Amino acid sequence: MGQHTPHSRHSPHPSIGRRSLHALRDLLRTQGSLPLWMFFPLVFVLVYLSHGPLLRLPYYWDEAGYYIPAAYDFFRTGTLIPFSTLSNAHPPLPSVLLAAWWHLSGFVPSGTRTAMCLVSALALLGVFRLARTMVRVEVAVAVTFLTGLYPVWFAQSTLAHADMFAAAATLWALSVYFERGLTAGTGRQRWWTVLLFSLAVLSKETAVVTPVALAAWEGLQLLRNRAETSPIRRARLQWVLALLAPILPLMAWYAYHFHKTGFLFGNPEFLRYNATATLEPQRILLAFGHRILHVTAHMNMFVPVLCTVAAMMLPPLLERNGTQRPRIALPLQAALGVVLLANLLFFSVVGGALLTRYLLPLYPLVLLECVATWRRRVRQWWLLVALSTVAFVAGLFINPPYRFAPEDNLSYHDMILLQQQAITRIAKQWPQAIVLTAWPASDELRKPELGYVQRPIKTVGIENFSLPEMRKAADAEDTYDTALLFSTKYGPPRMVRWMHLGNAATDTRYFGFHKDLTAQQAAALLHGTIVWQGERNGLWAAILRFPRAVDAQLAEPALPLALRR
């Protein structure tokens, strides 16, 4: 018989609370062998209900700028190459899936956001499977719960970006890859891994970094462990080939794109901003520092990470049978580390904007390491889960004291509402106006399918609302009679330095930073009158009117380089 802890069922007077925890643990262990499809409806309902107030919002930022127009073009014409927006050579799988869903739900934002809740729920199920495979089911439940609540993940769960599609396929692929444990694995596991990683790269081309990194890891083990038996070495070689196989469908897509457009990797400006202009060593080092902060501190991730650092100072606890509580096997932790490091390095070199959604598959891996450590070393580890839950919920609503993209928490909801209010007012009071504004509001005014207007409104586009751009607008004052201004990012009243690297010069040079004029400053420079202004949680929007006659033509909006993705 195994040894019992002082609070086992043989204790004289165990508390009801501890009995309940033991009962829940035993129930979870029993459910650990149930098929995952039985959990999917529950996960989807939880995701859907928790995002209820967001489901009817019109499209936002990169949704409006690329992903929805690309999917809408396929929905209407069946073309894989978008024509209503610049082609960035992103693989077409998200467009195909969204268009197929719209045939069921209709082309409405609520239908799109419901589809994204389905994708998020599927991704969370992959998180659960991965964690259950590597540790145990109660840890898997905690990791899945915290992942769904993490502000970046929560916000992306209704936004129609390709990153959630790629994250779902990547996490399922990792769950199959790590299912083999420390064994050679089976042919079935290899084929499923190839299929799932192929779906990931056909959702977002950058997803290829994960299977390539694991292939390099397997190849390194093949070179280092020459004493392994021939069957094991043969299996490692098969895994290397399987993990490199998803490159083939990506190459096929690029060949098709080149055949249709003459561009291999999208339009030249997109390629320059996201690849060729990012190769300076100083920029890479700064970006890598930001990326480390993104996975260890951003949006209150520092709470579980610091709890893990503290827990590492404690000795491992014992199970009832006297053995130490299990850890994730060190070789598997090393493979997880390879995935994390490869992605952090890759997205420090590629991608002009330091968007956190690019790292979406990494957050569950960080949380897996955290919760597995808590369970091994902290007796009441569920308290750390509760503390992290509070921190993540707070991060959804409370903005941090540094600059960040509104899509990293519920600030995107505030930005959409502000732009929706402003555009509704323009459409009702000045439907014939010619509006000076920047992207994405320029698309929101011109394209009724994005959910802001019923009829297109003419626009004159500028890059942003910085002083140089506004001076250009002042010189062309006869081309517009109205202006829609808005905050293009969240800027805290007083920014702290602990989450900021570099300075204003490097931010401007490497990351497209600019300082927008306020509505009052813009009105003074353009000689206009503020007729409406709104503010929500540090974000703002304003309408300016200019009492002059205008003779202008509809102009295509200038797409800011920092947003061309």
Word description of this protein:
- With 565 residues, the protein is mainly alpha-helical.
- It has two domains: 364 residues, no CATH class; 156 residues, Rossmann fold (3-Layer(aba) Sandwich), CATH 3.40.50.
- Helices cover 56% and strands 5% of the residues.
- It has 23 helices and five strands.
- It has a five-stranded mixed sheet, with helices on both faces.
- Strand 4 and strand 5 form a beta hairpin.
- Helix 5 packs antiparallel against helix 6, helix 14 packs across helix 16 and helix 15 runs parallel beside helix 17.
Summarize this structure briefly:
This protein is mainly α and about 575 residues long.
Q: How many beta-strand runs?
A: 5
Q: What percent strand?
A: 5-15%
Distance between the termini: 61 Å
Strand order of the largest sheet: 2-1-3-5-4
Nearest-angstrom radius of gyration?
26 Å
Q: Summarize model confidence as the mean pLDDT.
A: 87
> Which regions are unreliable across 5 or more consecutive residues at pLDDT < 50?
1-24, 550-565
Determine the fraction of residues in helical runs and give it as a percent range.
55-70%
Number of domains: 2
For the report, how would you describe the main beta sheet? 5 strands, mixed
Number of helical elements:
23
Query: Structural class, from helix and strand content?
Result: mainly alpha
**What string gives the helices and strands in order?**
HHHHHHHHHHHHHHHHHHHEHEHEHHEE
- What spatial form do the alpha-carbon principal axes imply? globular
